[in-house]
Queue: 3 jobs
Job 1
Amino acid sequence: MSHERDQFDDLPDPLADDLVRLYRVDLQPSPAADQMLLNRARAHFAGRNRTLLLRRVAGAAAAVILVAAVLIPTLRRTDHGIAIVRQEAHGDVNFDGAVDIRDALALARRIEEKRTKPIDDFNGDKIVDRRDVDALAMMAVRLDSKEVPPR
C-alpha cells in the first residue's frame, strides 16, 4: 500500500489519517543490508551465467561427439589421405546394412509420399512404381547366398 495521503481523498479525513498512520512504515534499510543484498544478487547472476556457459560448451561437445560418431565409421584411409566412403548394398533403401523386407516397405512408403529417386528403380524400367517394390521384395527373400553387389 502506498504511503501517500492523496490516495484516500475520497474518504473522510479522520479515517484517511488513521489509515495513513496504521500503514506507515518508517524503516530504512542499513547500507550494510543493502550491500549484502546487492552482493547476493550479483553472485546469483554470476553463477547463472557460468551455468549457461557450461550448458553451451556441453551442448557443443555433444554435437561434436555425435557428428564424429556418425562420420568415423564412414572414414577410410587412402593413399591421398582420408576419404569418406559410404558403402551401400544395392537395395538397402533404409541404410541399415541389410537388404530385407523392411527396405521394400520403405520404398513403398517413398512411392506413396512421392519422394522417389532414380536410384530406386530396381527392375530397370526407368519408372519407380509398385513393380520396383515387388522386385526389391524378391531380392530380399531370395535364397542364394551370394552377396548383394554394391551400388
Job 2
Amino acid sequence: MDAQLLGYISKHPGVGGGELADAEQMSAPSMSAHLKRLEAAGWIGREPPRADDRRRVGLRVTAAGEAALLAIRRQRNEWLAARLAALTAKERRALAAAGGPLRRLAGDRW
C-alpha cells in the first residue's frame, strides 16, 4: 500500500487526502490513518493551504519518501524478475499476450 500511495502522490503532487481516498477507493478515515503513518515516517509532507481554499492541504512526497519508493519498487522488480525467470518461454509469451487486456482492465491505475 505504501508504494501505491507514494506513487500516486508523486504523480499528482498537491493532491488532497479526500481526492486520494477517492482515487484509491478507500474511506476517508482509512486514508487519514495511512497518511498520518506516511507523514510520521517522513515520507510525505503537507503543502501550505491554498489561497482559494484554506481548508485544502495538498500532499507531496519528500526526498525520504522518493528513496523509500525507489527501494520498494526495486525490491518488487527483483521479486518479479526471479519469478518470471522460472517460467517457460511459452508461459512468458502467454503473459506478454495478456498485457494489453490487463492494461485496459487497470485503466488509469497503471
Job 3
Amino acid sequence: MIFNLGQIILTRSVHDLMTENPEFATHIYTSLNRHMAGDWGEIGAADKLANESALLDGERLFSAYTREGLTPVWIITEWDRSVTTVLFPDEY
C-alpha cells in the first residue's frame, strides 16, 4: 500500500451488484488492492502520470478497472486521502 484509502464508499448500484454477484465483489476487492498499490488499471498514459504526480502533490487519484464479462469500475481517492469512491463510469 502506497497511500491510505480513507473511508471506502460504494455507490448504491456498485453495492447492489456486489451483493448479487460474488464474482463482481471479488473484482471490486481486487481493484481496490490494485488501486492502493499504484496499479492504476486501464487509464491512459497522461492519467497515469497525473496519478504519479498526485502521490507527491496530494491531488486526487483515479483508476479504472475492467474484467471480461463484468461491468467496468472507476475508483477515485480524494486529494486528502479521506475518502475513496467506487463507482460505475456512467455515475461520474
